[in-house]
Amino acid sequence: MNKIWEQMYEAAKSLHNARKISDYVTCGEVAAAILSKSGKIYTGVCVDTCSTLGICAERNAIFNMLTNGEHEIDKVLCIMPDGKCGGAPCGACRELMVQLMADNYKDVQILMDYEQKRVMTLGELTPEWWI
Ligand SMILES: [Zn+2]
After folding, report:
1. What is the percentage of the chain residues whose pLDDT exceeds 70?
2. 96 CA distance to ligand 1 centroid (A)?
3. Strands 118-121, 109-113: parallel, antiparallel or unpaired by DSSP?
4. Which member of 34, 61, 85, 94 lies 3.0 to 4.6 Å from 44 by CB, making a disulfide possible if both were Cys?
5. Which helix (DSSP H) or strand (DSSP E) does residue 26 occupy?
6. C-alpha 59 to ligand 1 mean position (Å)
7. What is the rounded distance in angstroms from the CA atom of residue 16 to the CA atom of residue 29?
8. Ligand 1 centroid – CA 126 distance (Å)
9. Which residues have CB under 8 Å from 106's CB, separation 6+?
C-alpha cells in the first residue's frame, strides 16, 4: 500500500475511539483522514447527537481542512465502527466534496478496503452530479 495511505490510516486509527460524551452525544465511532492537495493530512471523527446535530467523520475532517485554509482534496479514508479501514462516504459527504471541487472532484481517491488495497475515485462513486 502506498506510504501516504499508511500515514493516513495511522492518523485516523489514533482517533478511532467510540465514546459517550453525554446522554445525547457520542463520538469517535468512525474516524477519517483527508489528504489535501498540498500533502497535509486532516482528521475528524463522527459526532452523533440527538436531533441530527452531528456530523460524519469525513465532513468533520473536511471542515478541519477548510478551517486550516485549504479546500482541495486528494485522498479520503475512514476507519469504520468495526475497526476496519475503508468504505464509501455517504451521499452528504460526497455532495460536499463535489461542491468544493466541482471541476475536478472525479479524481479524488477513496479508500474502499485497506486490506485489499482497493481504491475508487469519487468520479466512479458519483459519476453524474445533479447540478
Ligand atoms: Zn458522510
Report:
1. 99
2. 9
3. antiparallel
4. 61
5. strand 25-36
6. 6
7. 6
8. 14
9. 121, 122, 123, 126
